[in-house]
Write a structure and sequence with these properties.
Length: about 80
Amino acid sequence: MAAEERTGDGLGAPAVDWFTITPHDSNSLAIKPRALYVSVAGDISVISTKGNTMTITVTAGYHPLRPEIVKATGTTATGIYGLL
C-alpha cells in the first residue's frame, strides 16, 4: 500500500493541497481549510462558522484553525495559506 493511501483524509491527516488566503472583512472562504499556515508572524482576526470573532497572535507555522472568514481588519500576519 502506498504511503498516500495510508494517510486518510481526516482532519488529523497531512495536508494534500493548499490555497492562498487573502484576508477580507466579509467574504467567506470558498473552501474551509483543515488548518492555516502563516509565513510571517502577527495577528489573525477570524470569524467562526457560528459568527464568533477572535483575534489571535500567531507565530510563523501551522495553526489548527478552520475559520469561515479571515478578516483584513486586525490581521497583520502575512503569507496565509489554507491547508486542505
